[in-house]
């Protein structure tokens, strides 16, 4: 199976619409890949808090339209990163302090159909920024691809192992993390990606951004880790397309040869049938 991680640079001099079109063109170039992954909030920048409200869009808004077409044109499964989603009415009120905004990821099939959405559960900011501007998601999301079951997570989620264990209990074999991770904590990014792979005996495909978001330099260094914790591929600091081949069957082999998940004593889920 081949994956392309598009480590997009966010430049404040580039309009959001121009970036949508540029990124769509990059997606269309990944025709040899099975799965294409974009970073978190690449339309606005993950730290551009003042843009969340002005650039927020409905689920089936401009980004949806452009990315659905790009996925169909390339014939790929596309994790289109996340958008600042605006929800109105009763559902918007449920966002509470988020004021009807969510950090929402979209996944498209090779035919361009929207097959899954994930609202980020753990919001970053310590009572400011995203933590107060956006509502929290409440549902774990997995997507069944022909070769593997993918579990979805976003950026700050990476620090919460119980979320990933829940995804594994739901059948995930490949964990996709879309992020806008800051450069000053890059060592944590790499460490946590490898930790989630080792403890869950799953692939981790973690795609971050490059550039500077509202004065915050981004880490880059998107990474792909195998179920044994070995790094299969890693990007640099700038904008880059990271392409990697991986074998989903290695998840089952690893879990059979080193069956640590069977020895869990706390929070054990019912066997899947």
TrEMBL record:
Presence of the UniProt keyword Hydrolase in the record: yes
CN hydrolase domain boundaries: 1-248
Key word Metal-binding present: no
Pfam families from the UniProt entry: CN_hydrolase (PF00795)
Single GO MF descriptor: hydrolase activity
Highest taxon in the source lineage: Bacteria
Matches recorded under PROSITE patterns: CN_HYDROLASE, UPF0012
InterPro entries noted in UniProt: C-N_Hydrolase, C-N_Hydrolase_sf, UPF0012_CS
Keywords: Hydrolase
Family label: Belongs to the carbon-nitrogen hydrolase superfamily. NIT1/NIT2 family.
Protein name: Carbon-nitrogen hydrolase
């Amino acid at each position: 199976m081949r994956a392309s991680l598009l480590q997009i640079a966010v430049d404040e001099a580039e309009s959001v619409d121009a970036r949508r079109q540029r990124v769509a063109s990059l997606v269309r170039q990944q025709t040899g890949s099975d799965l294409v992954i974009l970073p978190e909030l690449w339309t606005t920048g993950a730290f551009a808090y003042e843009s969340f409200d002005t650039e927020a869009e409905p689920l089936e808004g401009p980004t949806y339209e452009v990315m659905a077409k790009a996925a169909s044109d390339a014939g790929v499964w596309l994790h289109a990163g996340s958008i600042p989603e605006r929800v109105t009415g009763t559902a918007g009120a449920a966002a509470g302090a988020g004021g009807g905004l969510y950090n929402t990821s979209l996944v498209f099939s090779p035919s361009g159909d929207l097959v899954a959405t994930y609202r980020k559960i753990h919001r970053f900011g310590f009572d400011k920024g995203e933590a107060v501007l956006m509502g929290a998601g409440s549902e774990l999301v997995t997507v069944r691809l022909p070769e593997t079951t993918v579990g979805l997570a976003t950026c700050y989620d990476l620090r919460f192992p119980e979320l990933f264990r829940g995804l594994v209990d739901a059948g995930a074999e490949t964990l996709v993390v879309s992020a806008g991770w800051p450069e000053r904590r890059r060592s944590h990014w790499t460490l946590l990606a490898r930790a989630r792979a080792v403890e869950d005996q799953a692939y981790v495909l973690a795609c971050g951004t490059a550039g500077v978001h509202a004065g915050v330099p981004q880490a880059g260094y998107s990474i792909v880790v195998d179920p044994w914790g070995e790094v299969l591929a890693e990007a640099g600091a700038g904008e880059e397309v990271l392409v990697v081949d991986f074998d989903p069957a290695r998840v089952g082999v690893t879990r059979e040869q080193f069956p640590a998940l069977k020895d869990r004593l706390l929070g054990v889920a019912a066997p899947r049938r």
